[in-house]
């Protein structure tokens, strides 16, 4: 049922049309997908599999060519829902430099609620709270362009938070960051999910981010070809490799040990779990 789903796709289909030659490209191919309120979902898939296209449907930046997309029960094809959808599901993109518009951090964060017509006093509160939640309050008077990549992405997330969304969709937010910046951003996202129950849809290439999710969705060629807990998904070693995705080294080791007849669980994601499994072999 669509009821109480944060994201609900019904036969979602999207074709890009090249307006020069009329050429069509089927980017999303009849996807059915449900994401619950409060869930932390990671979307994996190699380049061109349709991840960004589906993400853009989640806040009505793109509208389905066929099928339906509902965001918190709102039909994205109904133009009346547009602003409600945009404030329900905020979006964070890959390049932090393209998202920050103001010359002072707190002005940037105020931008979203200002556009929504929120009262100035309330904006002040929301800006302060949002910056505190992402650990950037001390930087509120700084110039965004002087911050690190990870700090910029956290300011971008604060800007979304200030609109009080129920859901945040992040399209490879860590792709341009160094390891420390990646950790800052992912820890922030995880905390927003744990503490405030904000639904998270995170598109990423990094396995260490995917294993933190409640559920992993794997896309290939415009379709969802695999979904489950991180353990269920990564233990499908041959399938993951076939579509060009990596699995954690210990998961692959568990798979190989099984192949040569050792009875260890295939659902292993960490070295600790591997050590336990091996100790039990005796
Ligand atoms: P991903 O984010 O997984 O890399 P995308 O959603 O960006 O994948 O792209 C899915 C498919 O749609 C790819 O084949 C890509 O080439 C195509 N595509 C993406 N954007 C456009 C566009 N603006 N015009 C035409 N085709 C596009
Ligand atoms: Mg993409």
TrEMBL record:
PANTHER family: ENERGY-COUPLING FACTOR TRANSPORTER ATP-BINDING PROTEIN ECFA1 (PTHR43553:SF24), HEAVY METAL TRANSPORTER (PTHR43553). One of its GO terms (molecular function) is ATPase-coupled transmembrane transporter activity. It is found in: Cell membrane. It comes from the Bacteria. SMART domains: AAA (SM00382). This is Energy-coupling factor transport system ATP-binding protein. Pfam families: ABC_tran. Keywords: ATP-binding, Cell membrane, Membrane, Nucleotide-binding, Translocase, Transport. Belongs to the ABC transporter superfamily. GO terms for cellular component: ATP-binding cassette (ABC) transporter complex. The lineage of its organism: Bacteria, Bacillati, Bacillota, Clostridia, Eubacteriales. CDD domains: ABC_cobalt_CbiO_domain1. Residues 7-246 form the ABC transporter domain. It is a peripheral membrane protein. It comes from Clostridium frigidicarnis.
